[in-house]
Design goal:
By secondary structure, the chain is mostly helical. It has one domain. It has five helices and no strands.
């Protein structure tokens, strides 16, 4: 619910694609470094890969904007719930407890959820790219990876 609150599934797709582009830029930089440090290409230098830095910054910006927009929606819903609560709620609950709970929940939604959602997406994409590169460089590792995937699914 949190992930799709602000921009729906389109926002999730944009964040996922930007994370995928980020990981592809990391993989491309590794290949570029291996290519440029070979003896044949050591004399020429083309800094055209700085565009990937802008893509990484755009990904981080979009994840935070997405998280803050969702936090704003959460705050409006929370405030609406508090303002429409019956008077008996305020008679039995101290205002300090309400304020403390509201501020801690809002802090969690503002700071931690966008960070951890972005980090989780990035780590899954990193894992996928590590598996792809490992299978590309050492193809016999596919024989070990397939049973590990089956065991992982079975143990869940």
């Amino acid at each position: 619910m949190y992930i799709t609150e602000a921009w729906g599934w389109w926002g999730v797709i944009v964040v996922f694609v930007m994370s995928l582009v980020w990981q592809c830029s990391l993989m491309a930089s590794d290949y570029w470094l291996a290519f440029e440090t070979s003896e044949d290409n050591a004399a020429s230098f083309r800094p055209s890969f700085s565009d990937f830095c802008y893509l990484v910054a755009l990904r981080a910006f979009l994840v935070h904007i997405w998280g803050l927009k969702t936090a704003q929606i959460f705050f409006k819903q929370f405030l609406n719930s508090i303002l429409h609560a019956p008077m008996s709620f305020f008679d039995t609950t101290p205002s300090g407890r309400i304020l403390s709970r509201a501020s801690s929940d809002q802090t969690n939604v503002d700071l931690f959820l966008p960070f951890f959602v972005g980090l989780t997406v990035a780590m899954y994409i990193t894992l996928l790219s590590v598996i792809i590169v490992t299978c590309q460089v050492a193809w016999p590792s596919v024989i070990a990876i397939i049973p590990l995937v089956v065991l992982n699914i079975w143990y869940r």
